[in-house]
Structures are given as structure tokens and as C-alpha cells.
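Technical annex B. To support the medicinal chemistry partners, we prepared a structural model of the target in complex with 6K0, based solely on the information shown next.
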Amino acid sequence: MNFHCQCVLVHYIVLIALKDIYVWSQNMTYENNGFHQSSGICQLYTGTICQDFLKNAHVFIDPNVTINDLEERLKAAYGVIKESKDMNSNCRKYALPSLCFSALPICRTPERTNLLYFANVAMITNKYNGNSTRKRRFVSKDTKTMHLFHKKKSVYFNDVFTTDVSSKYPPTRESENLKRICREECELLENELCQKEYAIAKRHPVIGLVGVEDCEKIPQHKDCSTLGITIEVDETEDCYWEDGSSYRGVQNVSSSGKSCLRWSWLMKEISDFPELIGQNYCRNPGSAEKSPWCFVDDRSLDRNIEPCGIPKCVDKIWLSIISILGLTALFVIVIFLMVLFRRKSSRGMKNIQNINTPNAGNNIYGNSQSNTNQDAGGRVILNSSMEHVGMPSKNIEKNGLLRIPHFTLQDVEFFEELGEGAFGKVYKGQLTQTNKKVVNVAIKALKENASVKTQQDFRREIELISDLKHQNIVCILGVILNKEPFCMLFEYMANGDLHEFLISNSPVEKKSLLQLEFLQIAMQISEGMEYLSGHHYVHRDLAARNCLVNEGLIVKISDFGLSRDIYSSDYYRVQSKSLLPVRWMPSESILYGKFTTESDIWSFGVVLWEIYSYGMQPYYGYSNPEVIHLIRSRQLLSCPENCPTAVYSLMIECWHEQAVKRPTFADISHRLKTWYEGHIKISNQTPK
Ligand code: 6K0
């Protein structure tokens, strides 16, 4: 212990003292003591490139380079490897550790190596310069420690040179004193895994500088630096599945009893098949044959390939049949349970809870609801023919279809087109009601060649709307289902959609809205939404374009479906199928497709912004991907001109990152109502 400590101390003193001699003697060799190669010293590795492999290790440095030079070269070499496109991925894994171990072999006994090195240098200096030079150099350093060094030096130097070990551990790159890459692994890399890459590396201007190991020169040693190359074999595998490309057993004789040759001897591009590295077992790399095979040495054959005759594992078909049967059974059970559960829950619940927005079948994310094939009562619609829509069978008493007045095409007169969607077109028209009263209507006509899914969505929408009765939800007056085109008749909203209304009342059109009017619009939407959320209905596409305005500034919520051409820029097409109104969506909906009343509240905040911005597009000037980035990084919409601070703070609250912290629609309605009433008071007080 004591010896060791002193030894370390001396080592560091020597290091400091002989720094300049070290540089000076870089290229010197001393012929008569066995140090023919340039010797070097051991230094603690503190770099970053190799820290995974060399942490806390002392590494051997040739005297003509510094550890910093080496680190720089390693960095450059690593850069080349990282960028290199034609490097095989099986080889790439080992490139860095092999470079590190080659450039910086680990010292087994760093103190001893360093001591030897400096003893060597000291002897050279002695021989060529005499004692006077050495003394002068030593005196120039800390004389106190040098004194100590002088005292100890003779003892250790003599000791080092006289022991047997010293000759075995000369401080050179080739000595046994260094822990090198394991020779087997080096050979596997050079000859099999990285054949091409090794050849390139040796000649590469950057990698070559670091030094690539010459495997033949590495001494065989049990304690070596391993790269962790593993050869995947499974001795228990005695049959193969399918074509045997996954066979990892250890049979290495062909069917005719010839022994298999090592793959690397005959296979050209072996590095693509790590299962072939370093052995000669039967394999079927890349499914080239029908069963495992190997190369054999037989000149009489024109192809020196032979199958191995390994038996095939029990016909997999049985297993497949069993698993398919099992899965089907499981599937049937799950479906059965689901149907059972639905029936049970629909008895106690309003059917609206199970239906979500019809959105002409294009609910955001492109998937129609899982219960598309069931009507509100949980009954499965087997025949999708519209006869079911037109003539509901007797057992659907609760069906919304029966609650709505039915009309015929004779009762309506079609006027101009108001818009178009995936389902068909919306026309303005007139309906002659049973009491002979004529009213304006918006007629949503289902196109004649509508798909089964669109037809079902049309029917579901009727059922849904017939359940919604509120002064701020668009009102359905009747349906025409006896003859195509099937139609829904909505009360006519004279001022069109809210977005159009806002633009046509904006300062651009030399018009403006009163603060009171802004509040009136917002309040009605909030109240409509309060009603919808109370019915557990998640809208998913609340936006000004989906609200309708009637005379007397009546605002009602509707949902036309996504594909109205004029608003296509409001939707972002993701994965070619689903259309997302990202500008109205919180991050949880964008990221996880989570749509809840809370996400509707976020959208309401955006609608508020649209109202006070006179129908500007939220985040205008930004592309959809940019908008997603803005929302995710919480760069929210800024306060519109002339928007009261209180209203803007309400928007900010609606855009709370945590969905549960957003205000409820009841809160929002209450607040808007208070402000609205406050405004009435103020406007009444203002002198005329
Ligand atoms: C459309 C009008 C509609 C058209 N589909 C629906 C619907 C609430 C809910 C829902 C409504 C009018 C702007 C033009 C084109 N326009 O009323 C209309 C097509 N469907 O709203 N469904 C629905 C409602 F919570 C869920 F699915 C319309 N009535 N007056 C004037 N212009 C109109």
C-alpha cells in the first residue's frame, strides 16, 4: 500500500518534471534496452468521444501525439462514420468502440508504464547529455520535490529494470501491458462484419489517422477490450419454421454429411446477415432457399451449396388455425359483450350520449363513430337501404324520425343553392306547412348516389337534431323521406353563417358592430353550447362558419359537415383522410385526437376571437403545420382590436393548457350575461 502510494506520487512528480524532456525526446529510440518501438505514457482518459468505453481508464498515448490531438482525430473520424451512408448497419454498431480501443489502448499498469517511460528517457538524457543537463532541468522545477525524487529514483529505477516483469511490460504499443481489442473480435470485424469498411478505413485520410488495428499484430490475451459482438445461436433449436430464415441452431453438416464451410469464405456480402458472422452453421440468409443450407467443399458439384436436411417444425398451419379460431372466438365474445353493454346503458341514458356529431360522416380523424351501424336505441341496422329511413318499422317508437313532421316533395319549392357538402346540397326553399302557412326553409338534400355510410350519417343526424330543442340550436322543421332526394328542412336563417355575417358587418365593408352586439352573439353561442354539453354532446367543430344568424341577431349553432369548399382552408388534411380544424383545436385534440366538452370550450374561445376580429382567420398568415407548432408552444392568439380586456381574459381562460381548468359553458354564459346586462345599464345611462 505504502509502496503503491509513493509510487503514484513519484509518477506524478516525474510527469511534471520531465514534461519538457518528454517533448524533446519524442523521436528518440534507445537501441540496447529492448524499446525499439516508440514508447509512450499512460494518461487518464477525460475526453468525450470515447467516454462510454474508456471512462476512468488510463490510456496509452504515443509520445508524438497528445491526448487532445487524438481526441480531435477521433472526433473527425466519428463524424465521417456518422455521415457515411454506405456503411452497413451491422458494422456501424462496432465502429466507434473499435476506433476508441485502437487509438487509445487501455493501460493495465499505468504507473509502471509511466515510470518505465521516464526511466527510459532519463537514461537517454544521461547517456547523451550527461548528469549536468538533467540536474539543470530538475533544478528549474520545484527543488523540494525534486529532492524527494532524487532520493527515490535510484531505488525504483533499479527496481524496475532489474525485475523480470519489466522486460515483459515495456511501455510500448505492442507490449502485453496494454489491453487491446480482443483479437477474435478484431478478426470478425476485419474479415466478416466490416470487410469493405475496414479496407476503406485503413486508407481513409481521417479515419486512417486515428489508426485502425492490424488484427494480426494483436497478442492473444484473455483480458482484452471486448466490442460485444455476439453470435446469436440457440443450441436447443433442432427444427426450423417456415423457410428457416430464423433458424439459429448449431447443425453444421449438410444433408450428405459434408461439413459446412465458414460463411465468410464464400459469401460475398456477409455483413448484411449478422447471423452468419464467425461461424459455419446451417442458415437461410435472406430466405434465399426453401430451408437452411450451407456451403460445402465439393468440386464435383457445380454449385457448392447443399441443404442441411434439418426437419421442419410441426406444421405451423395447425398453430395458425388454432390461433385464428381462438381470435375469432374472442372477437365474437367481445362483440357480444359490447352489444349487451350498449343495450343496458341505452336504457338508462339519453341516446344522444352515444351519438356524436354526424359531420356528414367525416368526423375529424376520418373515423365515423364506432356505433355507426346502430340506431339510437342500440339496434343494429342490417339493411342500409333508405327504406329504413323512409318507413321506420313499428318497433322504433322512440325513434326521432317519428317525432318530426314528414313532408313530401310537393310540399316544398326549391330556390337557389346555399351551399354544398359531402352529403349533397343545401338550397333555399319554401315549405307549405299543414296549416297552409308558407315558411322559408333551408333544404339539406341528400345526393342520389350517396354511399351507405353517408345515408346512415344522414339518418343519424335527423335523429340527433330531433332530440335537440333549444333556441340557440338550429331547428329542424321536418323531413322528406318518402321519395328521393331525401331532405331535411331547417328553419331559414336569413343572415347566413356567422363568419359571412361578421365579414359583411366589418370595417372593411365600412360597417361595424356594437360592443353589445358582440356580447349578444357570444352569449347565444355559449348558451347553445351549454345546452349541448348538458346533453353530453361534443361538437368537435365549433367555429363561426358553423353558426347561423337570423334576423334580429339570433344566433344558432349548427354543424354542416366539413367539406364546404369556401372553408376548406380552415381544415388541415392529415394522413390524407382526416380533416382537422386545427386553428380551433387545443393541443390534446391535435396530439391525441381527444375531443371533449373542454376541447369545445377551447374552440369557443377561438370563436370569441373570430367575433371580435370580424371574421378573421385565427393565426392568419400561418400555415397549418405552423399553427400546430404555435398551439403546442402556447403562442396564443393576441387580443383583437377593440376587444375588452375582460373578454380577452375569458378567451385566455378557455385556452388553458389543462383542460379541466377551462371555465364551463355555464360559467361563460353567466359572465357574458353579466357584462351584457352591465352594458345595457351603461348605454341607458349615457346621456343622449
Ligand atoms: C345551412 C343551413 C343549415 C345545412 N346541415 C345542417 C346541422 C346541430 C348540431 C348537427 C344545417 C339555414 C349556410 C348555409 C349553407 N345554411 O341549417 C344546415 C346543412 N345540419 O346543422 N346539423 C346539426 C346541428 F348540434 C349537430 F349535426 C342554413 N338553416 N339557413 C340558412 N343558410 C343555411
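Notes passed to the chemistry partners:
Residues 1-37, 130-166, 346-397 have pLDDT under 50 and may be disordered.
The chain has 23 helices and 15 strands.
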